[in-house]
Amino acid sequence: MALRAHRPTRHFKRGGICAATLALLAIQGCASVSSETTGSIGRSNPAQTGQPASGVPAAQLDGAVRSYGQAYQKNPKDKGTGLSYAALLQMVGRNDQSLAVMQQVAIAHPDDRDVLSAYGKALAAAGNLPKALETIRRAQTPDRPDWRLFSAEGAILDQMGKSDEARTFYRKALEIQPNEPTVLSNLGMSYVLTNDLASAERYLKQAVQQRGVDSRVRQNLALVVGLQGRFAEAKQIASAELDPQQAEANVAFLQSMLDQQNTWSQLKEKDKRS
């Protein structure tokens, strides 16, 4: 059950809350549209923090990118190599190059479901949302529906501003894969985009209770709690998996974003009156 909390952010404009959400998601390094993973809203920019999206040390990722890049050059039609190389490129923020790789893999494997799925996610990461949506839908098959594709479709629709439609697909994914934390997190973040923070918190709390939950889900919960003005609680949630300095930096960054949107003073006034 979600905590009963003040909702000062109900006065926020959609643009303001989205700006704070997308910016903090980027600073956390959440994968932009892995689309089946949380934080699927917005395009990440690892350069902002110097940290890759995955949390893997940069030197290790760079070595993997070079290794798979060499293997891809030798055989650009190999499905496994292409998928891995494209995924690594996205992890280091090289989305346009990842898309170029996936285009070549898709030409070699035009009817492969895994390839179409990865191609759709690469298109979304590069910002081509209509084409990404079309490709993800081509990958889906009515007789063998894939919950990951439903979640990816929902994430793309959210980025297109179609959150009501997006939630339909998240719920379809949950019918196939009940309590899947990545889908619950995407559903929660969908409610952030329409400023329903109580619903967002409820789904994110449900997500963090699941086994094997990605650390980014907890950071999304911290974000939503912070957007409601409960910064001490947000810092405590973030600190469970981040080092204290990074947790402090995330919360401070959120506060600065709210300052820029002229909402921080509203939050403080609400807290004083509570």
Automatic annotation (TrEMBL):
TPR repeats lie at residues 147-180. InterPro entries: O-mannosyl-transferase_TMTC, TPR-like_helical_dom_sf, TPR_rpt, UCP035836. It comes from the Bacteria. Keywords: Repeat, Signal, TPR repeat. Residues 37-57 are annotated as: Disordered. Residues 1-31 form the signal peptide. PROSITE patterns: PROKAR_LIPOPROTEIN, TPR. It holds the Pfam family TPR_16. Residues 37-52 have a biased composition (Polar residues). Gene3D superfamilies: Tetratricopeptide repeat domain. PANTHER family: PROTEIN O-MANNOSYL-TRANSFERASE TMTC4, PTHR44227. This is Tetratricopeptide repeat protein. It comes from Jiella mangrovi. The lineage of its organism: Bacteria, Pseudomonadati, Pseudomonadota, Alphaproteobacteria, Hyphomicrobiales.
